[in-house]
Amino acid sequence: MLRIGVVGAGGWGRNLARNFAALKDAELVAICDLSEEVRRANGRMYPDAALYEDFDAMLEKGELDAVAIAAPAPTHYDMTRKALEAGKHVYVEKPFTLRSDRAAELVELADKVGLTVMVGHLLEYHPAVLKLKELTDNGDLGDLYYMYTERVNLGIVRHAENAWWSLAPHDVSVILFLFGAEPVTVSACGRSFLQEGIEDVVFANLQFSDGRMAQIHVSWLDPRKSRRMVLVGERRMASFDDMEPSEKIRVFDKGASVVRDGYANYEESIRLRSGDVMIPHVSSSEPLRAECEHFIESVNSGSPPRSDARDGLRVVRVLEAGQRSLDAGGEPVSLDG
Amino acid sequence: MLRIGVVGAGGWGRNLARNFAALKDAELVAICDLSEEVRRANGRMYPDAALYEDFDAMLEKGELDAVAIAAPAPTHYDMTRKALEAGKHVYVEKPFTLRSDRAAELVELADKVGLTVMVGHLLEYHPAVLKLKELTDNGDLGDLYYMYTERVNLGIVRHAENAWWSLAPHDVSVILFLFGAEPVTVSACGRSFLQEGIEDVVFANLQFSDGRMAQIHVSWLDPRKSRRMVLVGERRMASFDDMEPSEKIRVFDKGASVVRDGYANYEESIRLRSGDVMIPHVSSSEPLRAECEHFIESVNSGSPPRSDARDGLRVVRVLEAGQRSLDAGGEPVSLDG
Amino acid sequence: MLRIGVVGAGGWGRNLARNFAALKDAELVAICDLSEEVRRANGRMYPDAALYEDFDAMLEKGELDAVAIAAPAPTHYDMTRKALEAGKHVYVEKPFTLRSDRAAELVELADKVGLTVMVGHLLEYHPAVLKLKELTDNGDLGDLYYMYTERVNLGIVRHAENAWWSLAPHDVSVILFLFGAEPVTVSACGRSFLQEGIEDVVFANLQFSDGRMAQIHVSWLDPRKSRRMVLVGERRMASFDDMEPSEKIRVFDKGASVVRDGYANYEESIRLRSGDVMIPHVSSSEPLRAECEHFIESVNSGSPPRSDARDGLRVVRVLEAGQRSLDAGGEPVSLDG
Amino acid sequence: MLRIGVVGAGGWGRNLARNFAALKDAELVAICDLSEEVRRANGRMYPDAALYEDFDAMLEKGELDAVAIAAPAPTHYDMTRKALEAGKHVYVEKPFTLRSDRAAELVELADKVGLTVMVGHLLEYHPAVLKLKELTDNGDLGDLYYMYTERVNLGIVRHAENAWWSLAPHDVSVILFLFGAEPVTVSACGRSFLQEGIEDVVFANLQFSDGRMAQIHVSWLDPRKSRRMVLVGERRMASFDDMEPSEKIRVFDKGASVVRDGYANYEESIRLRSGDVMIPHVSSSEPLRAECEHFIESVNSGSPPRSDARDGLRVVRVLEAGQRSLDAGGEPVSLDG
Q: Does any CB of chain B come closer than 8 Å to the CB of residue D243?
């Protein structure tokens, strides 16, 4: 029975508390929040959980096996480090940290103390994304050429972070997950319209050493709500539309093949194929539930979680490079910089 | 009655011939094409039109008032120059030329000889685009923040030009038309998968001096056919989906307004508004028909057409900068370079 | 403060309990269910509510002002009568009763004892339906010609009632609400495929004395999930699609007008008009919440609720006639029968 | 080489003329139309075709092998009879005739003279309908339970026939084609809003002796343009949406199976299955082209066409019964009447 304390239980943290409280192998033993009102509300829902205003106090007195950190991003590094030093396993929301050197430090620390650190890259636990992973890994799509993602909506407009750090971690984590590689350069163009210095919309391009490419479009200032991804492979193409209630994934038996034995007539040297479209049935289970279960299994088994600290570091490196490119007006930024 | 000769009547040129032949103020008197088969086919459809294999011969003997050039892009500069020197008005398909210095030379020449030059920026004559122009100019959308366009499909894969030069002229011409300005820098990322050195997919970003931004996504290697544009303004937002049979334009009474009198609570400092959506009725008339009529009216009135040589030059300058950025791996390229 | 007891808290009744417990002017003081497990589960959620296995016991000892009946349809008549005789206001789920004579008896009884009876015709409290009511009443659509509804899905397959009694009460209540009239005849055709004598799909047609018409299509054996209504008026048309997350209502400025001054050429005697389409913003508040609030207000004010016992009777009369038509193989059945 | 004359070349007949003129095994040798303007227009397009004002004259002097009849429906019986008596094969547009006894008479006559008669049931030649036929015949859907069709739009409003006779022949012919059977009863409800006695909207229900059912919804007074069909089978379900540019057919691996070994708990006795959705690639060839080719092949081979006179008779019998039901206010009408 894993004894868990949740820090930051006002917003998204509520969902973490709800799920951990519901899992049979976990026990929600403590909740920590700066707001008395939030503490009181959680106290009513979880009468057996101890309430803390101070994170250090929870670590000290809480008799915890693990902490789930849903406090604001700037606190992630500090709280994760303290928790590890206190001997607790850590589940921390995305983005892992706001600086890659800090993320790298936490990777080392986690290895040294031999504890589990898992980052809340929710989409890596989404049944539809796992289906895309299956399609790419088993060769159904053939070699991947490129993919692009769109995560736009009107709201929620953040004040502490821009649309890139708020929305793109989901897309970046899925791209690295599906490609199984890190990009070599990131170019990002964006604009701030509502608040000075806080980009509302960002278009970013990731280039990979083997020629693959990924494009990300994030915005909280858009008339449509869209959550979609398109993968283009040599043999087939696929799309994921998370706004569709049930038909989220489509596999297009479409492609263009090049006939390499030099034709006189170029027109004949490329063959387009438009075949059936398959909409595979995808489980409608809640990704967050699966994510919380995965954390508990990882702690119990001692094997690294899918979205471990190294994964968190990789994502932060891309976000950081993207921010540098944004600040430089779209200059491609190398990750080896 | 404007006497017109069409050069390049195999592909798209057929549509030009058909439209000019049908207009009451125009007469299709000559058709020029290198292919005997194409000449014969057009001869059957337009028995009164003289047939030429050689463009110079048509200019010399054709007794024409104007020529419509639908030959491959590399020939546009040469044919336009020759036609102007021969005293003919010119309708030339997009892209106007493949180099901006050549386009600039043609602008000068057209002025010197006092003849009409019109570039086939078809979308500037699309009823839906004219509705978008009306919405932006009359202030319905408020100050424009940014727009983005998507022009993707599986095929037609070109061999002489990449997806950028083949598809983006439409998007660039509409962006300049709606913004009423030229960008200061262009960044473009793309990849060649099917043919070496010929980009199949390109993502480009245009930055304007006043802070506005436009993004273009073109591809001929995509599972979906999409032809859409989204405009985000301070007061309202709008979208144009050319795949919709009738409901092409949507005006969203949506926006985010910032309350400037510094709030303690930032949450209150931004107000999101989600109101009605209006789908204005847009004429379903054929854009090409309107375009051909506009050419004839422009010649007759002597007033410059909407998509005149200067417009053609502006678009080529953006395409050229985009190609330089593509070649430089996404480096932002200044148009004043 | 209205003291309410809920009977039948296993299925839909849970939602009634949740809403009444949350309303500030109501108090959930008792829960009655035959299942001990259901009682225990509700006991945990509502520790202050008394638990009863027997409805009579709850009426006797419960010190209630009102009861909310979510027990199976066959019990509605009996429980409503007993509650009224015990001096309690009644909220009862649809269908009001399974026989119109029983419904009529309850209307009389409610009048005699001067208590509030409200039937759970949920859609009469749906913001989108209220928008349709506004559009019809204020003349935006002109005279209503006809409407049709579609309520299909795969599942939930019932065993005690067919798709007509399970799904159609929603459509019938909305039709009577919008038309402000009762039909004179009902024709219904259906088939039983899964269970003998229990129709899985029903198509019903309602004819009104003034020439208006309504069609209903219900099924729990269909590949698509659809919840939609279309209204055709003399001046405009409207649709309601409850599967749309936000754009539920569309008002089409479309119509066909007949020019009455007898034309020689009939073609000219009918003018089709296709104008703008408007998607009005509709509140996304929960209909059930509004319904529960309306019940409390009605009890407190003493004014009859929108879906009172008379409304319940009208709906049952149509359902009953529809069932007779189903049993007679589609024979139109008169409501005055 | 089949020598064909087309009668009624003003409206839809133009498409017949265009197709027959283009087919290599046919020759368009004559065109007959009452309107001099229509004759002149066709004369320009088909200089080699003889022009007639009078049908009898064309039959007499035309040296034809076959006639294609696209004149108004009331003329179909007379013209078909005359053509057969004159020894010509006949292609006649739907509806075959306006009375079933006349259709039966033509079936007999065609047999007697041994000539081909084909009725223009266009959808029986639509690639998507042929795919549905394949799915039903090869058992992919299992036993068919029921199907329904929707053919609605704003316009074209007819004056000589109602929406039932104008639109439903397509649906009826497909239903009989897919079911391979004739219904035993037809119930139809409709209303006339624009013109007295001419129904603008009709809902019809067809009952088959083996328990299968089909529903038809036709209207020319509707805000949406819809052309769709849904088939529900024991094993799978399918839909056909002709408004979709490419994804016209969907096969749903969905169904409800009943477990017959009497359960105590009814809930367990029905199993719902929701699996993959398949969108098979369907040829985008023009149905009318295939239809015209089929006529020529049938004449040349002497084998009866898919939509022969008997098929035409079957469809007219259903339309006739439907009209009787309309006139009787929805009374189910038996086809054996």
A: yes
